[in-house]
TrEMBL record, chains A, B, C, D:
CDD domains: cupin_GDO-like_C (cd06992), cupin_GDO-like_N (cd02216)
Start and end residues of each Cupin type-2 domain: 94-164
Matches recorded under NCBIfam families: gentisate_1_2
Organism: Bordetella genomosp. 9
EC numbers: 1.13.11.4
Pfam families: Cupin_2
Keywords on record: Dioxygenase, Oxidoreductase
Protein name: Gentisate 1,2-dioxygenase
Ranges that cross the membrane: none
InterPro entries found in the cross-reference section: Cupin_2, GDO-like, Gentisate_dOase, RmlC-like_jellyroll, RmlC_Cupin_sf
Gene Ontology terms for molecular function: gentisate 1,2-dioxygenase activity
Gene3D superfamilies: Jelly Rolls
SUPFAM superfamilies, A to Z: RmlC-like cupins
Amino acid sequence: MAEGTSTRADRAAYYERIARKNLAPLWESLHNLVPRTPQPRCVPAMWRYNDVRADVMEAGSLITAEEAVRRVLILENPGLPGQASITQTLYAGLQLILPGEIAPSHRHTQSALRFIMEGKGAYTAVNGERTTMHPGDFIITPSWTYHDHGNLEASEGGEPVVWLDGLDIPLLRMLDAGFAENYPASTQPVTRPEGDSYARYGYNMAPVRYQPANGNSPIFNYPYERSREALDRLYRFGELDAWDGVKLRYINPATGGSPMPTMATFMQFLPAGFQGKTTRSTDSTVYSVVEGRGTARVGDQEFHFGPRDVFVAPSWQPVQLAAAEDAILFSFSDRPVQMALGLLREERLE
Amino acid sequence: MAEGTSTRADRAAYYERIARKNLAPLWESLHNLVPRTPQPRCVPAMWRYNDVRADVMEAGSLITAEEAVRRVLILENPGLPGQASITQTLYAGLQLILPGEIAPSHRHTQSALRFIMEGKGAYTAVNGERTTMHPGDFIITPSWTYHDHGNLEASEGGEPVVWLDGLDIPLLRMLDAGFAENYPASTQPVTRPEGDSYARYGYNMAPVRYQPANGNSPIFNYPYERSREALDRLYRFGELDAWDGVKLRYINPATGGSPMPTMATFMQFLPAGFQGKTTRSTDSTVYSVVEGRGTARVGDQEFHFGPRDVFVAPSWQPVQLAAAEDAILFSFSDRPVQMALGLLREERLE
Amino acid sequence: MAEGTSTRADRAAYYERIARKNLAPLWESLHNLVPRTPQPRCVPAMWRYNDVRADVMEAGSLITAEEAVRRVLILENPGLPGQASITQTLYAGLQLILPGEIAPSHRHTQSALRFIMEGKGAYTAVNGERTTMHPGDFIITPSWTYHDHGNLEASEGGEPVVWLDGLDIPLLRMLDAGFAENYPASTQPVTRPEGDSYARYGYNMAPVRYQPANGNSPIFNYPYERSREALDRLYRFGELDAWDGVKLRYINPATGGSPMPTMATFMQFLPAGFQGKTTRSTDSTVYSVVEGRGTARVGDQEFHFGPRDVFVAPSWQPVQLAAAEDAILFSFSDRPVQMALGLLREERLE
Amino acid sequence: MAEGTSTRADRAAYYERIARKNLAPLWESLHNLVPRTPQPRCVPAMWRYNDVRADVMEAGSLITAEEAVRRVLILENPGLPGQASITQTLYAGLQLILPGEIAPSHRHTQSALRFIMEGKGAYTAVNGERTTMHPGDFIITPSWTYHDHGNLEASEGGEPVVWLDGLDIPLLRMLDAGFAENYPASTQPVTRPEGDSYARYGYNMAPVRYQPANGNSPIFNYPYERSREALDRLYRFGELDAWDGVKLRYINPATGGSPMPTMATFMQFLPAGFQGKTTRSTDSTVYSVVEGRGTARVGDQEFHFGPRDVFVAPSWQPVQLAAAEDAILFSFSDRPVQMALGLLREERLE
């Protein structure tokens, strides 16, 4: 039967023939390639901390931090099987470090963030400075900076410490821009006292001749104590957005932008009883619950979340947040990439 | 047999168990996820125009421009089958428009460039202005701008016109940021005379109150006549880089950056006898030969190129160019994305 | 006698003749107009707080805040008499507000900073928010923002409060860009609780959708407590620059730049016994001593400074600082203007 | 008689006393220091070329270019006598170079522009490249670049050449940021062929690895032929602003900003019979007539202008332009300074 100027069989024969020359007809796939709205393969999903904590701890007996280099369980999006991706651009995992262990020093062009979930005694070292990791702290290890993690001996108070890793691994895989190398020793030398970066850059001041060399924040630990205080104060002042509750983004104080060029990070407070309106945006977002309980509707899913649960909202899926008790959510997404390229869209639905 | 603290079988059982919870062990894939150097799946490839021209023309009898919306043969990288990708982030195709045809008006968030290969009589319309397409012209249709293409009737001098399309389709697919819509009519109204944008922005001047609203160039046709003249003059002045010959990048005169935020474009002259040194970079590049003949070594491949041939150099693959006769190469890549994210690396080898 | 091609008399007659047409010979003044190095008319000078405090207080009995609008004694550079200038681009004055008084609300395109010297009970209101002024606090009232100052009644604990005002009045006079208007009431309405701006922008976080509209910091009070703590911590960490001691610049966290586009502000710590090396730069700087005693050599002058003294270092004059006891200096200059125009030069002499 | 809390005599005595301490009462001068609207001392003025040309030529017999270094008659604003200023921030002068002369090479931090008025044979050299000066060309010699001027011998076709110099001398005097030095020889070596910079940067392209090092345009001659063509085309396309006619600003193609950080430059076309509406802005502007005749109302002045006349419009003075015959006006102002500092205001009056 005729389709325009040719039969279906004509076309099939033609397609088969040109395929051998690495050619394909755009008109058969145009609507998929240039969709009306985003068609993410990434799906809404949640990992309950209670469901996975035992697996994380079991990994501690299965393999040493040194052998593993990084002892992490990847949170793999069910819509992206085998791709080590929680969204199409982002990777997330739960990392465990036991007392007395060291995760050896290396660097890579992938940017990484750490959001601390439980335990005490561990540190992350970046650029010659170690920072102690407390639950709720947000820590960055920017692209191509040597970093290692360690933990006190149990006798010194070290506990198993678990944190959420967020990296731009899938993004850099697509961009074919991944480089890595190991530091010649398991730990990098400590050349600066703990708190040095924060003292230089964390007080709305900076060294007099400092000029930023790249888009990475010179602060590398944003302590929970401070972030929590900002949210508390704003809530007391009456701030409450009908979609977001009280929501702040972490900034690179040297530029006002995101702490790293590829990932934005947020912390928000939802008071008990909050019933947020629906929003959607083109940046896929990973949420990590810090405190409290509530419900997140994401697309056609409903997640009842509690402390340390992780859930993900794909691009352009409607998201609606509600809190049964005062709740704090940390989140991260590829928003700065979308902004840099002029692609971010957001919608706040009534 | 023991591996560290557990047997291989222990681990396999564990991996199987956690997989059901959408968890995966990072340590089994760390080296793939965080490679020493880029490991592109995209491979070096070439499409000879003489090999594919007949197929392009045949498409003209197989389907109308109107039915196809865009009558394009996608150049699909052999390393990325079925993905409509010439590199991991970029799409390329050969588009044909016959005399008297119209490719109807639509817009999408994907950015597009056109590089004209043969024929005369066709135009592209963007933002209410039509520009006639001449071989060697470089034309942009920025993100979310309505655009349509048309051609004169054969009786008015219209010829079959073929151009190379370059789009960031795979990048936007990964970013889940694709939106599209059709214009209510097949062509948008013409509201400005041909040459208006160029007169406003193309003379190293700009309207007195103009401030750029986004990263897209206000010039939308960069005529070959001008680009060729710049290369000619520089060559006569003695410019000749041992790696690149005489190579210029197109700029957005409102910012100095690339004409669109996701794709850089270049034009270079290689004099007869030029034997370039080897270079490599993390932006994968699509080359389109404008004039002349020569040889491109890309990774372990060697391509003997002539006019209108298209070839592709994946990330971090060594590239070496030589010219048997005076040659002009147009090329495009995702360089501005890599620069915006602090990821671009280049190496010029001796 | 001949000078080149003409006599001195010829030239004088010619000069006189062309002067009537508003013409003048460049060659007679070229070396003054285009000097080898800066030739500031501004001179090094110091105002001892002990010498001027009584005059400031006397002003309180001479005129009311309301009549004066702003009850300020201008610190006028001896090299710039009658110009209300402490440097060629900057104005400085000591402002007094007594218990129960109000300095009425107005706005102007001149940017203003306040550095608090003594007393308690007073506030500054900007953008609907009042901030209590404590000694050592640095407060901004950006260009074209309504601002008023007030003080508690004596019965509520209000004391005479004195602060240093710094404005870009001479700069805007030269640029002919001064506009001003009064608010219809003596005080602007209070629409936001005290601390609101700081909670939003002061914690290395920002509201999620905030984009800076101009170059002014969204924080308007930088409390001394925080600035002092940053300096203390850095000094304890071993930071000590041979020229500057421990010196930080205040930043606009939305951009990383100076808090306002025309004035940079700094705070530095000089430990007891510090003998700084000599530095010079093209930004003329006004220093205000917060704590401690020491010596400043500026050009051919030597100033023995103590708490609340103000001194000024003109462009390109060598400056050398020494501390007899632990000292804190606040300072401000036109550095961001010089940087924006590509003019800043600095030299650190051995 | 009492004035508020004190008598006039009390105050006078107090003022006299504190003056000895370099203190002055703000309240006596507040309205002058912080005016309602700009109060420029610069006044509207015009220099008719026919009135001053003979004086310029006479300077050629009075002093050699070499002795003068720069043989220039300064256009001194009648409101700013003795200050070598045409506006409060800008300097303008008419420079003459005779056949066979050289104006020796030097550099200074002051930025300079040249707008060619008459004659042929002369060149300006910047950064090792000479450019021939044609009437209507706009040439820059950016801050701290060595530059010299020369002219052909009369036997080779050299004619007396006159151009308008525009510099930011008063601005840099206020900023105390002036440095200068002579080149060790009278001319700098020529290291690049004429047209090299334009070929690299003037075609909406740039060398592939070029990144701007500062705010200065890499193009240093903007030829009249091109600027005129852009205006002509736009006028033919129907462009005609009721205030400005057809007005373009010159851009630095590396940034989209002004060619130099301290001065904006414009060229506009007014068709015969054009009666512009009134506009005003805070940047004081110097106009140089290229072609045609017309009338400029500036404040309360009316100037009937013809070719090569120069007139000046102070800050915030109403400006209204009319053309008796097709007219082209070149102009320059301190607009980029005002924009960088957030101070520019404009008003288009009906």
